[in-house]
TrEMBL record:
Lineage: Archaea, Methanobacteriati, Methanobacteriota, Stenosarchaea group, Halobacteria
Main EC class the enzyme belongs to: oxidoreductase
Organism for this UniProt entry: Halomarina oriensis
InterPro entries: NADH_UbQ_OxRdtase_chain4L/K, NUOK/Mnh_C1-like
Keyword Transmembrane: yes
Major localization listed first in the record, in broad terms: membrane
Protein name as annotated: NADH-quinone oxidoreductase subunit NuoK
């Protein structure tokens, strides 16, 4: 059996990579991929603790998180398409001109 610390380390590494991607990238598609990495890190934690405790609660919450991620991608792709249509680029720093 694999110790839970390995799952925690994997989850922490994925989460840190996601945070790094959000903080350093300007591309909106990279933002979406970084958020997906962070959600997958949370899913790994939920499933690992669920397996350790012997109940299915974490796995059910993980399924809800996957549904949330799918909805987030659908809305995010719509926003990216509008951003590309208005600015012909997916650089999020150019979207500041859409303010008042």
């Amino acid at each position: 059996m694999v110790p839970i610390q390995y799952y925690m380390m994997l989850s922490a590494a994925l989460f840190c990579i996601g945070v790094f991607g959000i903080l350093t990238r300007r591309n909106a598609l990279m933002f979406l991929m970084s958020v997906e990495l962070m959600l997958n890190a949370a899913n790994i934690n939920l499933v690992a603790f669920s397996f350790q405790n012997g109940n299915l609660t974490g796995q059910v919450f993980s399924l809800f998180t996957m549904a949330l991620a799918a909805a987030e991608v659908a809305v995010g792709i719509g926003i990216i398409l509008v951003l590309y249509r208005n600015f012909s680029d997916v650089d999020v720093t150019k979207a500041t001109t859409m303010r008042w």
